[in-house]
Design goal:
The complex is a heterodimer.
Chain A (H helix, E strand, L loop, with lengths): L1 H10 L4 H7 L2 H21 L8 H19 L3 H25 L1 E3 L2 E6 L4 E2 L1 H19 L2 H5 L5 H15 L4 H17 L4 H21 L2 H11 L10 H13 L10 H4 L11 H34 L3 H25 L17 H19 L9
Helix pairs in contact in A: 3-4, 3-14, 4-16, 5-6, 5-8, 6-8, 6-9, 6-15, 6-16, 8-9, 9-15, 12-14, 14-15, 14-16, 15-16
Chain B lengths: L1 H38 L1 H12 E6 L6 E2 L5 E13 L7 H11 L4 H13 L6 E4 L4 H9 L7 E10 L7 H4 L2 E3 L17 E3 L2 H5 L1 H5 L3 E7 L5 E8 L7 E2 L4 H11 L4 E7 L5 E7 L5 H5 L3 H9 L8 H4 L9 H11 L8 E3 L2 E4 L2 E4 L7 E3 L1 H7 L2 H11 L1 H10 L21 H8 L5 H7 L10 H12 L28 H16 L18 E7 L6 H6 L14 E8 L6 E7 L5 H22 L5
Parallel strand pairs in B: 2-10
Antiparallel strand pairs in B: 1-8, 2-3, 3-4, 3-5, 6-7, 8-9, 11-12, 11-19, 13-16, 14-15, 17-18, 18-19
Helix pairs in contact in B: 9-22, 13-15, 13-16, 13-20, 14-20, 15-18
Amino acid sequence: MYKAYETSFRNQSLGLVDKFWGISFSYVFLIMLLAAIGVTMLYSAANGSWEPWALRQLIRFALGFAIMIVLAFFDVRIFLRYAYWFYFGVLALLILVEIGGHVGMGAQRWINLGFMKLQPSELMKIALVLALAKYFNSTGLQSIESIKGIIFPAMLVMVPVTLVMIQPDLGTALMLLFSAAAMFFVVGIQIWKFGVLALGAIISMPVAWHFLHDYQKNRVLTFLDPERDPLGAGYHIIQSKIALGSGGVFGKGFLNGTQSHLNFLPEKHTDFIFTMLSEEFGMIGAVAVILINFLIIAYSFIFALRSTSYFGKLVAVGLTTNYFLYVMINIAMVLGLLPVVGIPLPLISYGGTVLLSVMTGFGIILAVNINRNIIIGKD
Amino acid sequence: MNRDNDKGKVLIYRSMILGVAELLLLLLLIFRLYYLQVYQADKYATLADENRISTRLLVPPRGIIYDRHQNMIAGNQQNFQVMMVAEQTTDVDETLEALKKIMPLDEAEEKRVRKDLKRNRSFVPVKIKDNLSWEETTKILLNAPDLPGVFIDEGLSRFYPYKEMFAHVVGYVAAVSEKDVKDDPLLEVPGFKIGKSGIERLFDKELRGKAGNLKLEVNAIGRVMKEIERVDGIAGDKIELSLDLRLQQKAYELLGNESGAVVMMNVNTGEVLVFASAPAFDPNIFATGLSTEQWNELNNNMKKPLLNKAVSGLYSPGSTFKMVVGLAALESGMVGKQTRSFCAGKMNLGNHTFHCWKDAGHGYLDMVQALQHSCDIFFYETAQKIGINKIAEMAKRFGLGQKTNVGIENEKRGLIPDTEWKKQRFGEPWQQGESIISGIGQGYILTTPIQLATMVSRIANGGYAVSPTFKKFSPKSDVIEAKSMGISPLNMEVVKQGMFEVMNAPGGTALRSGFNFNGQKMAGKTGTTQVRRISMKERMSGVLGQEELEWKLRNHALFVGYAPYDNPKYGIAVLVEHGGSGSGVAAPIGSKMLLEALKLDATDKPVD
């Protein structure tokens, strides 16, 4: 039995050429299209200049693209084998950040590697998905549905979430929590357990409120009523809505966004880049970006469902949901539907770590798709 | 194995639910986009423009003020100011030091400049000094290479070419103060000046003009990116006054260093030709801002240059009031043209003695003679006979004791007493002695020079209630609105003849000042009013000559008159504070003014 398994394992390895033709070119094209839109917007954000953002972003995308392609050629079983190693490695880095990380933006988030600033919380988004997928792959449905069976995965989630929370980086912590919740949902944990959890969250809200930093409280209050402080905390969201609304259906034209170019719109090259895009290209441009993301996510789910392995499916769903959360939270935030939590729009916003993190995710998703017919065991 | 199968099915089933949910949520964002970018697009487009467009008002040039012959008496002058933009210089301190070498700055000014530079964003031009001399301006321009960020800005400032001469009538402009009604957005423009006094205040709205608009695109911190639109304003209206520059000049020349007022009017139209109050001040210093020393000097001057004596100075009319008393008596029918009185130099009422100015007395005289000699006893008796109320009623018909509303601020009403007034004011009945001294324009009676000019004009025109005005009369479009005061022309003639004799008959109090210019003669009446009581002891030992007295104690000199006698055109009132005597000081000024007016009349080209 063991022998047979070993044999099939070897036989099922694919050649490089097979793998290359296994790549979904339309999927890759959509990613490139979005990145091109991003570079274009960064060019506009700098008032029609490649400096300081557009060119650098292009180089980073090239790097990310390379990582994606390399990962696409990996055997999915390697991800399974090293999932825990990766997870605990990243966890160690998170603790390191807690101890002596670089202090930036009022929160300890980076490890300075000299050539780049490493944000371990970003890596954790991938590590957590892999670790949870490995765990659920190894257990049975009975264990998943039992209370005892979810203690370990819950620990896998809560330890990094807590660490990120005390950095403090509420946005990333919530993203980790939500993508983990999505995975808990798809593996079959009973709905009533989510109900109990939600109830518990609501009850503990006043306590949690107490532990929030002042600026975080401000953000929530400002979200609930932006006019509360129109020149202070509410300024961002008010200006974002003005920029969006004044763009209208057709927009003000490339490089002609007044809110963006006259600096009324803050953070136009990072968190609020979607606003700038909507101002210059109007609702047509904004809907186009949403639809491209729609296709990327739809493709990803199709890849997940097409995969014959439990691990592959789960990894793809987890990573896709992670990407979905970025897009959804960022756009909802700039549209004034969610508090300003500091989540960038991946592939479009300026910023290296997020770009590399989502490209890594896409690489793994591509690999899942390429290896969709490979049968994977429980460890 | 079966359970494992279930595990896989659950994963597929739930993944599909999750996937559909995520995709639907994503599509939901499109509704929000529709709401913001289509449904509320107009609202946000307006808000974006409000963010981006900064509208500035363009100050229009203030209207020019002319005299009746198109001479500019208030205009606008180019004003150079030196400005600095902090971000255009590498070192603010160094540049300021370099500038100070060329153009000295006092400590307070430098402190203000540094404060302004610190307070404003670095691209905002800060004014270092304005009203630069031409020399300073050229020096700065020549040294421009050493003064990065420093530039010269031109503006317009109000300019009064005749300085003091029109200060009390044209007034001046000054910075808007908190008390001013902000009825025009222009008033909010920094450095904007409005009319604060005189004609500048009276016609401020007309002179101000309409603001223009400059629309600029600004960024979030207020830096100007580009000009979007410029709509020039409309300059203020030009205003032609009734004043005559040449006569006004003459009046100041004649007043010299005296403290007093001259008001000349056209007796038929009410146009004010001369409106002088001396000494005056230079209104230009109000427009540019005056120093504390300048202010103290003006404020502490004994001759009160800031006081507009023509409308705000209150004086007993003295003997110039006698025409009013005479007319009141004639109109009452209690005194006729021929009614005579005997002047023995004094008269008694109870144990009080009233003196005539002439101790020896005038003997018998009728009203014409009484006016000619300015006999006090005649008017004491007349006043006693008719009572104060008839006098007061006549005085009011001639415009005394009430504002002329000519439009100059702080105009005083003066005072014409009657029995009712006394009762209300003091709760006491009117005394006969008070009627007697009212007969010679003393006692409670107080008038302003412009009221006296109005009075004499109404006498000269034969009893028409003209009112003084600064608007130039245009024969084409304007109609004389003055109504007849209903005084008998015969009685009017008596008084006018008396005034004629004053100037032209032997024994007239101002005979020396009379003239005959191509057959045109003048009429007038002098007045001398005491500002101190003459004690019995002093009267016994001989009254001191006016020259021996301290200036403050000398009599006020007054004169009212008109010319030509046959066809009256010009009426004048002259007041010289502490001038000594009406005939000696005021009458010559009045006479020379009237003569000048007649001479100019003769040389004047007919006005189309």
